[in-house]
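If you are new to this repository, start here. Below is one unmodified record pulled from the training split, so you can see the exact layout before writing a loader.
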Amino acid sequence: MFLIYNLTLGSISVVEGYPGNVLAIAATGLVATGEVSVRFRVPTPSHVREAVVAASVVTPQDGGADVVSLVMPGIGGEVGASHIDVALNGQQFSRVHGDGGNSDDAMPFSFCCLMIDADTTRVVGAGSVSTLAGLDTSFIIETAHADGRNLTEGGHDLTVVFAINNQSCTPSTADGAMPSGCESGIVVDLNNGRYSITYNLETAASWTGRMRFADSKTGLVIPMHDQILIVYPALAAFSSTASPLSARSLLNATAGENATFVIQGRDSFGNDMITPDSTGFSVQMNGPGLVALEVAYTGTGTGAYNVSYVATSATVTGPYSLIITLGSQVIKDGLKYVVVFPADISAAHSTVSIAAVLCKSAESCGSALPAVRVLFAVQLRDMFSNDVMADAQALQVSCAANVTGPGTAAAGNVTVATYTASGMFLYNLSNTVVGVNDVSISLAAVDGGGAPPASAAGLVLATRLTVIPGAAVAATSTVHNVSSVEVGPACPLDAECYALIAGATMQMRAITADAFGNPREADAGTMQFTTALVLPSAGSFQQPSQEAFKPALANGDGTYSFPVTLSAAGTHTLTATFQGGTVGNTPTVLKVTPAGESAVQSFATHEGGRSCVSQEECSGELAAGEDLAYVVLARDKYGNPRTETDGGVCTFELIAADDAVDPLLLTATDTGLGSYTVTLSPTLAESYTVRVKLGTQVIGNSGFKLTVIPAMAAVAQTTVQTSIGGVPCTKLSTCDSFGVGVSKSFRVIPADAYGNHRTNPSGDVRVSVAGGAPFSAAFDPLDGTYLFAVVYPSMGYHDVIVSLAPHVPSPPPPPMPPPGGGSTMDHDFFYGVSTSVTMSGNAAWEYANVASAPALANMTYAWVASSPFRVELIAGPADLNRTILFGCSANATCRTVKAGEAAAFVVKPRDQYGNARSESSGSMRYWLPPGETLSLASGNDDGTYSFSIIITKSGLTGLAVSLNSLMLLTSVPTFVLVVPGDASPVNSAVRHNASVCVSEQECPPPPEQQTSTSGAGAVNVAGNTSTYHLDVRDAYGNTRDTDSGLVTFQLEDQQAVGFGEFQANADANATTTNSSSTASAAAAYGYLLNMMSTLSGEFAAEVRLTGVKVGNSGFVMRVVPNVLSLAATTTAVCPASAQQSSSPPGLGTCGEPGGPGGVRCSESTS
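And here is the target side for that same chain:
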């Protein structure tokens, strides 16, 4: 199995291939291969021709890329570019790409030519079959491709060698001379795929023609099939004076006349026969025509036969073979050749031809160019149409012509034809005028020329010769304008030919003629034209220009059409050239006038300024209320300036950038001179888009920008508003309410007389609060406003007075300079003081800077529209030092509450002056440190905040409060004392020392379960008092430290009832759920329970608080016997075999009373 990986087929050894050549293709990435196939495909207009050939892979010894090598096929298709594909081991074909790229269209290889094929190449002509000895004879070879298509190009080397009896013709001498019996043919390449071969063989025999082509491009030798031809004896061999058949008729005859000869029969010894031969003689006569032949026995008794024959009108003069046989044998000298000669001249059968083409009666014999001599050839013929070749016979007549036709025949024409030779007369005719010339040619007898028959005189032919136009020349050709009906006269040279409207198309016609002015009837060259703008119309943007030459369209009748469309108004020239020469009546002049108004090409400009540009500023900034004049220059759709208007309507529409502003619509004035004017005086300071229309269409630069800036500030339109929120202040009304000592910002909004807000400095602004000293407001360059702040220490309503001393501007500046230019001008005045600023491009004129003004004391101030307005001073922002948690002090106990009860608190915010706030002060939060979650206090309508807390854990708990994430500085942190709640029997518990009893379980626990912390060694002994404690708790597990009521206890099956005694002293073994450990000396208060049983055993103990069982009531009290009294009267014997077990606490090992953990004796040993 062979594989290909990343096969890349690259360069090829040649870019033009010839069938039979070796082609090499570089192949990289070729791992291994077996069979290689290469496919050639030539795309043709109708289909794809392809051929597939085998190839081999060669690996160079130097280690370079592999090479696919193959022999080029004859693809049999159209010659041209070819795709080359390579397939390895039957896999898919891969494309071979050239250096020009790797697209499918890249065809790096092309075939050279079609190959000559021996089987399809044809040999035509009688000369390829037979000839006469010593006679120049020709035939034609028509080359063809293997598929039968004729080749249309020559250029190949052809050699033709004739060999007698098929002998070898290898040159035997150093000079390359042919051996005897071999002759070479003369080859003429007709350059159309056809070759003419001429030869002359003198030996009558069978010859073999061997033909070989040597391809001039491929170098291949292509042998043709051998051609066999017969060479008959020449006419010179027909003379035989010794033959008994000797007679003139055996050598020649005259067409149409009877010829006879005698055949003498002889025996084998040469004696004349005296009786006819029983078999008879047979006579055959073969030649180029038909022969009437008759053979008859003379009847003289000598064995002679009379033979007569006539070469009739169907015959042709020339050599004939005469074969005489007796039986099946040719008699002695029985093979003869006879030459038949023409009969007498016949004018009616003679012919007229031009360039070997026979002329016909009453028809045109051909055509000629003006003044070109045409040679008529008059061939004398006999009545059988045989050419009369003998000069003596031909000179019996003369030949003359009578010519009639248009124009005057050129000098040198003759009326008498000139005899040349072989019965041929020649006659020349020429004319400079196009048309049909009638030519009548006749023969006449020549005095002293013998006695020709009557048929030799008379009309030969009445024919025609058509003089056609000669080659077209530029000098006599002309250009015409074409109306809708006909072609106009020729345009004048250097003068106006036609006037047309810009953009209109005018059809032009160029009429070609030959050197004699004869119009051409067929196309004969390249006609081109060009136009040039030599004088643009006034006011046009156009400059003189020359267009490139364009080809005219040939009409097929010697004329050329081309449209001329000129868009630039003015004077143009039209120049036409033919075959590089200037047409005779050009350059001619064309006048172009503007077309109708075109909105798209029309444009606006501000008066005295430059043309506006769409989407760009057209003029300098305009102060509100100022005038600005615009001019609209009307143009046609080609940009030609109009000199008059079409009576349309021109409108200006100012569209503000703010969609809320209604557009401003104005109608421009028609000047009647191709322009419109309008004056704008916008009062709204805004950035406008100026939309200009002619009729319903916008003009070309419509959409240019106009920026209107505010005029000088006007106090009547200047207002005040709050800096934050932008609340407008109204005269004599309260504008804002804010806290005492709070700095509240206000903005003065300067505006011009039209209410436009100014963004540049507007003057000086003074402010006075509650009749206090005035102060200046600060200019804000970001938005053009003036900023001031009001801070007042007293609550109540106060008047604020705002005054403005505005700047005074100068008159508007002169028109703006062109873009990029700059000028310096004094343009701003402040009470007569000028300041100089530099303006560049479309920069707007500004007002003077405050710094350049005279002393403020000299300025005149006036109240602005909002002045005076009022402000209300209320309590200021909450102050952390003044805001308190009502009723509490810092680091002291503020409240004492029971666990689980709600404790209510109120926060009273105050400002820095101690004024109670009546509005929200922000976010008030509280928390119980440490680690408790922040909670939000509720704001009240009076500006206070309230919250309540519930604490279930007894003890002293801290409380903190914050305002807007900052802790109050007074009254916090404070403390809340939480005391236990009411007693809860269910949550109360009985314990023995530190061991808390568990219902239904032994208490204290068995000794093995006791620990040092729970009281190791604790045991209830009969008759002894056992001490238990009751810890009284509330519902939240807090241990109470006060008497909680009657506590009773009783053992199961015993009548005695005990009473608990409240103990106010601390008990180190007391427990509380308020801590995680079981021992806590703090708050260790409860009841003391003294229990005693005289009976041993296990008893359920029931404890009640105020008649209700406590939580762990029903625990088991185990009572053991009192062994101390038993030890005085009883001796325990403990043999070694006694069963031992752990004794109860207080009983020693056997024999050792009181020993702890001793061995108890079994009953069998007691």
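Two things worth knowing about this chain: Residues 740 and 794 are 6 Å apart (CA to CA). The mean pLDDT is 79.
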